[in-house]
């Protein structure tokens, strides 16, 4: 893939939590104006990767280039300026629970633009129409179902017309219909608005369905990157296991690294 | 020998950790308060917090104030009657409330009521990624969430202490004069006579210092809560305990300065 | 928005009530606003003030007419009281200032008894005649070991 067309690029990105290495020398490139899906099992480091490339957490080492600026090295002010071009849909929507739906979507506009209240209301209506929730302006987040809350979060992420939108597990915890609605929205709005979407998910079917580009993580390392076809047709056993969802394989069922017999007999193991 | 060494080590680690947390809190509070230099202020957030923290605590403050004044009058009368100095009751009640019990009890009640909810609220915002969401919307969560709560506490607590004092004095009067039969004139006269501006200032300085402790500790504990359900629960408990102890220690120090 | 307006009004009322409480206490109890500063100064020197201190009452015929502003030691063995007497209270030049006790072990105060002179004490003047505190212990020892203490 052409590096010049990459919206976000990482170099030798490593993140450690104490002794645990969540990401190890990860190098990815996320193409502009396309949907990139980052997949992997639980604990594969995909959510950590998302938090790093959105600047929510600093890396232990390595670099993250967003439009050429290294997120790990720029000032907070500079980061906030770049954040105007980013939107994020969180796993649990993360709507501000003291504000109504309308106020939630209007919030970034009120914070960062000098727009008139009437103009903001019009924009909120437009964003809600895009996610199919016009008419729900005055509900509180606690009155929304999970799927609806996620759609509102989507509308809020779109409020500033961002170049990049991050999605953290957009379909997890939703019923199949709501999940379908969300994946459709991601696909359609990405095409419609020419934005760059980055989706982190463990949902293989939804992920492969909307992806233009797939990155597969396993234990903090990238094991595949390419088009959905190339990933689907890969003969790497780990990838096949993940795509087909088999419980045991090269990614072992048992996460224990001590001998079962030893543990049962409570034998002293000399380290 | 080994045990003593271990104890020393544990104590050292605890001290280091505590110092680190104090430093962390100071830095966070300063970062929040430096937000006051940036316009526009979060006026709306501030008003909403003042409502939750201040107005929401009114009833409990009034009840504690009233009963504190009443019990002080009873206890004071019991002691003073032994010296035949019941006429001094007014000043005993007033000085105890204004110098000591008003600020301390109001601050402790606020810690239980408002402090815990501040910590829990911010902790839940951490768990539900609302703080991250603010961050992603290029809104500084320290400025948006922490600052209004600290400032609201700084304003609300001294006001609540003043109301606590007034209610307490009135309740003390009712018990002292109407129930125990102390002469109304000498009760009021003693009160006005013995309470000086210095006593009032002591009370105000205390309530302001307690407000600083409460606001900073409660927000810090919430902001740094481990983002799980138990994490928030622990943070809330710890916020209440640490703030209460800090208030009592600070009370001793301030009193010794202002004697 | 309606809800927010109500919140604003309630918060406003709360802040106002708190400020009124603070101001009320400052005026009534803290004697802010010059109430404590009215009056004129008189001084008196005693052999023994028996624990009268700043803020102690000055009484005439059982009525508080002022209070003690300062207690200082003079000539290494005398106590000088600076008293603030309320405006409008006229004391004769031969008035006597004495230290008394409210009750048997109550607090000390300064009692003034008027004399017969026509002239009155002016601000800054000193009492000619003073009467020191009666020391109960001295009295007791005097009574028991009569003759030995003098």
Summarize the structure.
Chain A has 271 residues and is of the alpha/beta class. Chain A contains ten helices and eleven strands. With 259 residues, chain B is mainly α.
Structure description:
The complex is a heterotrimer of chains A (271), B (259) and C (150). In chain A, 37% of the residues lie in helices and 23% in strands. Chain A has 271 residues and is an alpha/beta fold. In chain A, the strands form two sheets. Chain A has a six-stranded mixed beta sheet, sandwiched between helices. In chain A, helix 6 runs parallel beside helix 7 (204-210). Chain A is globular and about 70 Å long. The mean pLDDT of chain A is 87. In chain B, 85% of the residues lie in helices and 0% in strands. Chain B has helices spanning 2-34, 43-53, 58-81, 89-127, 130-136, 141-179, 184-194, 197-223, 229-258. In chain C, 24% of the residues lie in helices and 31% in strands. Chain C starts with a helix and ends in a 6-residue tail after the last helix. Classes of the chains: A alpha/beta (271), B mainly alpha (259), C alpha/beta (150). Chains in contact: A-B, B-C.
Observed structural traits:
heterotrimer, A: 271 residues, alpha/beta, 5-stranded antiparallel β-sheet, B: 259 residues, mainly alpha, 9 helices, 85% helix
SSE inventory with pairings:
The complex is a heterotrimer of chains A (271), B (259) and C (150).
Chain A: E1 6-17, E2 20-26, E3 29-31, E4 35-39, H1 46-53, E5 61-66, E6 69-70, H2 76-83, E7 86-89, H3 101-112, H4 117-130, H5 146-158, E8 164-168, H6 176-193, E9 196-201, H7 204-210, E10 213-218, E11 221-226, H8 228-232, H9 237-244, H10 260-265
Parallel strand pairs in A: 4-9, 4-10, 7-8, 8-9
Antiparallel strand pairs in A: 1-2, 1-3, 1-5, 5-6, 10-11
Chain B: H1 2-34, H2 43-53, H3 58-81, H4 89-127, H5 130-136, H6 141-179, H7 184-194, H8 197-223, H9 229-258
Chain C: H1 2-28, E1 40-46, E2 57-60, E3 63-74, E4 78-85, E5 96-101, E6 108-113, E7 129-131, H2 136-144
Parallel strand pairs in C: 2-6, 5-7
Antiparallel strand pairs in C: 1-4, 2-3, 3-4, 5-6
